[in-house]
Design brief:
29 strands; hydrolase; 31% strand; nine-stranded antiparallel sheet; alpha+beta; Beta-lactamase
Length: 492
């Protein structure tokens, strides 16, 4: 039986939560073993003038939802894991139709993420979108971020598509969640929209100047992140799930098509903590952070929930787990530090770019922490964003998402876009004059400056993101972010 020290774990939880000011939003950490509560730590409040947070405070679970959906799908038995999405949803375009159910759940489908695709059409995160039009729009995407089974790269697209496929066969996710909640006597529930009433929900907080603002998402929620509940609710659900056969099925990492091992299963990731690979998952939504880790053979579940946007729930859970297991500090990952010269890097061709930062790297505008690895390499801890890189011979080399890469520093250049005119993608219009890009209309118009990356690529800032523009031909270019890499614009 593996070592466990609940007193040490509780001290670690209190230390982590204590780093946040007591008069602001905070978080909750809860640990259970074989159904008995062994650790409780809480700090902060539900909102200005609100009640202190506790184990029954209700949070949004964000992407922690994914493993719940995967378990429901597998237990329904109506969508075999080797079925293609084209068989499940006949209206899909050819590219997504080739992806299997397992690949969609295991982040191997290369499916475009709908939220980032909306961003590339100029729609901000506050814009409301409805379920049926979203599905119709996504079904027409005839492109993928990568070949199915070729890399592990995060996207919510597969979960949204499979929720629709499951519902058409009579299995509505929100109803399945409600049935489990009633069976277990917990408050776990699925919402369709951010504005749906959720009893006891604490507001999520995003940093603002001054103070905080309340988080909001306009896009219709899906099985990628629609659940809410308390820390106690999540712990009870996990305790029950670990005793069912389906847990082993969804926690088993899916190999790539080449047979290469990965650390990501069906809504469950395996995180290396000391000598142990621990099943769990994290989640992030506007103003909320969530994470859990568990040991099914021992009936242990550790839950961390926060109502502040900077609340690193997954990192906190990992530190508490390490203390629970008595992992020496020397065995914990060491931050990468100044691991490479800071600045922008880019592949010789295509839309892959990165920015080196202290202890981290930003890839296509998605940031990941890096840690010192073996043989002078620097690695990520996230199974869904595997990175192993080193700075040698003036370049970053290694692999990203299981694929070999070589990135060169961006050189100062005077390359002009030569893209003057008006451009359209799916009704969205941008106008370019020299190195200035105009997006939107009226008071919502955005003006951005195109920064050259070389070889027909430029970066620009819009809606709080850095977007890459890659010229394909005199009359075509594509825009890309980490989870949506192929929104194409054509000259009008």
């Amino acid at each position: 039986m593996a070592e466990r020290d609940w007193a040490a774990a509780e001290n670690a939880a209190l230390e982590g939560l204590g780093a946040w000011p007591a008069d602001g939003p905070g978080g909750v950490v809860l640990g259970i073993e074989n159904g008995s509560v062994r650790l409780v730590a809480a700090a902060g409040h539900a909102g200005v003038g609100g009640a202190p947070l506790g184990t029954d405070s209700v949070f949004r679970w964000a992407s922690v939802t994914k493993h719940v959906f995967a378990a429901c799908l597998v237990e329904s038995g109506v969508l075999p894991l080797d079925m293609t999405l084209g068989e499940a949803l006949l209206e899909l375009a050819a590219a997504p139709a080739s992806v299997t159910v397992a690949q969609a759940l295991a982040m191997q489908g290369g499916l475009p993420d709908p939220r980032e695709s909306l961003t590339l059409l100029g729609f901000g995160s506050l814009t409301r979108t409805e379920a049926a039009p979203l599905h119709h729009w996504m079904a027409g995407f005839d492109w993928l971020n990568a070949r199915p089974g070729h890399e592990v790269a995060y996207s919510n697209g597969g979960y949204r598509l499979l929720e629709t496929a499951l519902a058409r066969r009579g299995f509505v996710f929100s109803d399945m969640v409600a049935d489990h909640a009633q069976r277990l006597g917990i408050g776990m529930r699925a919402s369709e929209y951010w504005t749906d009433p959720v009893p006891g929900l604490v507001p999520g907080h995003e940093p603002a100047s001054p103070g905080w603002s309340e988080g909001f998402q306009g896009m219709h929620l899906s099985a990628a992140g629609s659940l809410s509940g308390s820390a106690r609710d999540l712990a009870v659900w996990l305790s029950d799930l670990m005793a069912r056969d389906v847990f082993a099925q969804i926690a088993r990492p899916l190999p790539l098509g080449s047979g290469e091992a990965t650390g990501y299963g069906l809504g469950i990731a395996l995180t290396q903590i000391g000598a142990e690979r621990v099943p769990g998952h994290g989640g992030a939504q506007a103003g909320y952070r969530a994470g859990f880790l568990c040991a099914p053979e021992e009936g242990i579940a550790l839950v961390a929930l926060s109502n502040r946007d900077d609340g690193d729930a997954t990192g906190l859970a990992a530190r508490v787990w390490a203390r629970l297991r008595g992992v020496p500090q020397a065995q914990m990952p060491k931050p990468a530090g100044d691991w490479a010269p800071p600045g922008l890097y880019v592949a010789e061709e295509g839309g892959l770019w990165a920015e080196v930062k202290k202890n981290a790297i930003v890839v296509r505008d998605a940031e990941e922490a890096l840690f010192a690895g073996d043989d002078g390499q620097f690695v990520s801890a996230a199974p869904h964003a595997r990175m192993r890189l080193a700075y040698t011979d003036g370049a970053l080399s290694g692999d990203l998402f299981h694929q070999p890469v070589r990135l060169l520093p961006v050189r100062v250049c005077d390359e002009e876009p030569e893209l003057d005119g008006r451009w359209m993608s799916d009704g969205a219009i941008v106008t370019i004059r020299g190195r200035t890009l105009h997006w939107g209309a009226g008071p919502l118009q955005t003006e951005a400056t195109l920064k050259p990356l070389g070889n027909g690529r430029w970066l620009f800032n819009a809606m709080g993101r850095r977007i890459c523009l890659q010229r394909l031909a005199p009359d075509r270019f594509i825009l890309s972010l980490a989870r949506a890499r192929g929104v194409e614009y054509c000259r009008l």
